[in-house]
Amino acid sequence: MTDKEILQSYLLRLADSDMILGQRLCELCGKAPALEEEMALMNVALDLVGQARNWYEYVAELEGKGRDADQLAFLRDAHDYRNLLITEQPNGDYAVTMARQFFYDVWHYFTLKGLVNSSDERVAGIAAKALKEVTYHLRRSSEWVKRLGDGTEESHRRMQDGIDLLWRFTGELIQADDVDQQIAAAGIGPDTAQLTNDWRGLVKEVLQEATLTPQPDDAWMYLGGKRGEHTEHLGFILAEMQFLQRAYPDAKVW
Amino acid sequence: MYAQLVETGAKRVRTLEEMSPEERAFQERVDAEIKIEPKNWMPDGYRQTLIRQISQHAHSEVVGMLPEGNWVTRAPTLKRKLQLMAKIQDEAGHGLYLYSAMETLGADRDEEIEKLHSGKAKYSSIFNYPTISWADMGAIGWLVDGAAIVNQVVLQRTSYGPYSRAMIRICKEESFHQRQGYQILLDMMRGGTEEQKQMVQDSINRLWWPSLMMFGPHDDDSPNSQQSMAWKIKRKSNDELRQMFIDQTVPQLEFLGCTAPDPDLKWNEERGHYDFGEINWQEFYDVLKGNGPCNRERITTRKKAIEEGAWVREAAVAYAEKQKQRAAA
Q1: Contacts of A94 in chain B (CB under 8 A)
Q2: CA spacing 20 to 30 A to A159: which of A210, A231, B221, B263?
Q3: Do residues B303 and B120 make contact, with C-beta atoms less than 8 angstroms apart?
Q4: Cα–Cα distances in Å, from A3 out to A92, A115, A192, A193, B142?
Q5: What's phi and psi for B2, nearest 5 deg?
Q6: Closest Cβ–Cβ partner in B65, B93, B196 for A30
Q7: How do residues B152-208 score in pLDDT, each as one tens digit?
Q8: How far is A139 from chain B (nearest CA, A)?
Q9: Which chain A residues are Cβ-neighbours of B300 within 8 angstroms?
Q10: Its GO biological process terms (chain B) (predicted)?
């Protein structure tokens, strides 16, 4: 891969992960446990899809094939999607929703913190705006993990179940592959070892305060999203999300 | 918007002479256009009417998220998706804001929501219609938010202070939603394929009459309106508002290049208004009684959300309690 292709591949992970998690949160519209949560969930989703758009626009420019952000989001199939597997996991109960959000937010926060200092100015600019939003996302999901973990007996059980259910998808957040390493080496993205340490450190800290138990660092991990190998869920997400663009291929405006 | 049939408990409006001294002072304050505030004395009927109207309005904002939630996962472009998400978020905000205004009257949010779930409280009938194409997201913004604005602009002058202030804030956002909705339709009519244009016309055909029903029954069949008007909770009658809406909407409809499913719709030079056909009132009352296409689904979804979220809310309370004890220790 050329340097440009590596950058595109890396940016698509950011874009697709934001997009798919935003899509999952959209599914919760009208189904949140309280009206305040309706607002907050839609707010987080709005931030994520907005960030996805910024990343897609940059990828489209780098590609130079005449594709725009919409075509990247709505006309690629699952094997071309590079989102982290955790983002495509179903909403489950509110504990699962919050476990997914928390694991993702910690990764997102430390990744963006690294990207803010990127040698690529465009990346640094998009990351700086996103970091403000994600700082709030992380504060919110950390609070919910603590509330549910240290709330009632039932909420504690559900929250621990959520953590255990999704733990296998967290390896992908912190295990660097070639693309991650080359992006770090080029000074574009965060230092990979530091990202791993930061993620583990904060997750353990919050879980401890929430009276929850993390799984061991060497637990088995489910990988694949970064190279386009997804769980069964993504196909259905895309079928729904891309419906109009697929059903009306001749439509030029919407 | 979104309050169509609000009981006032009054058979007829009483004269000043028939009123007790405090009720008379209240009515004189209302007549002098001085806002009633939560701490002021108010007749029980006024309080109950407002609780019913504001809660209906709040419920409508919340239930109104569902037909849009039906399409937010399928929005065709990033721009349209973001717009729809922002609109839904605004509606949740309006709901919260209105419930707060309602609570200034001594009502309890959870109790009122329980009435919604048991079918005792109403919400706007329009949200019991299905959203079956993307064009419905445009038509809802344009027609439904448009109808809401006509009502709410007038409600900015309603006599109860907190409700009036809520309306001022909400109106600004609703106008934005309406323009976005219209733009969805206009873009499809201008640059869309034949299929997209048909989608727009079909959506208007389905949502036109239900939008007109949003203003409630004819004035003659609206016994509660008179008392609400005397209390200046309502400022214009149902038929007046409906006419205002039609007069401002028909030119927009023509600009789109679409038609309304009403053969009697035509400009009346003499009246200076559009004439229009008779609403199917049987359908209106059916939907209001729970027999619309989506009444059951809407309420079931809301009930399920609140019931399945009970353990989450309990946990939040328990955690807050523990934090308080820890802080005190």
Answers
A1: 309, 312
A2: A231
A3: no
A4: 39, 17, 18, 21, 48
A5: 85, 20
A6: B65
A7: 999 999 999 999 999 999 998 899 999 999 999 999 999 999 999 999 999 999 999
A8: 15
A9: none
A10: phenylacetate catabolic process
CATH architecture of A3-247: Up-down Bundle (1.20)
Contact A30 B305 (CB under 8 A): yes
pLDDT at B2 over 80: no
The Cα of B81 is separated from the nearest Cα of chain A by a number of Å equal to: 8
Write out pLDDT tens, residues A104-151.
999 999 999 999 999 999 999 999 999 999 999 999 999 999 999 999
The domains of chain B are located at 21-328
With contact defined as beta carbons under 8 Å apart, do A123 and A188 qualify? yes
Residue type, B12: R
- The per-residue pLDDT for range A46-72, each reduced to its tens digit, is 999 999 999 999 999 999 999 999 999
Q: Which residues of A touch B311 (CB under 8 A)?
A: 152, 154-155, 158
**Cβ pair A49:B82 closer than 8 A:** yes
Residue B105 Cα, gap to closest chain A Cα (Å): 20
Q: Which residues does chain B have within 8 Å of residue A43's beta carbon, measured at their own beta carbons? A: 89
What pTM did the predictor assign?
Answer: 0.96
CATH number of B21-328: 1.20.1260.10
H-run or E-run covering B162: helix B161-191
Across the range B107-123, mean pLDDT stands at: 95
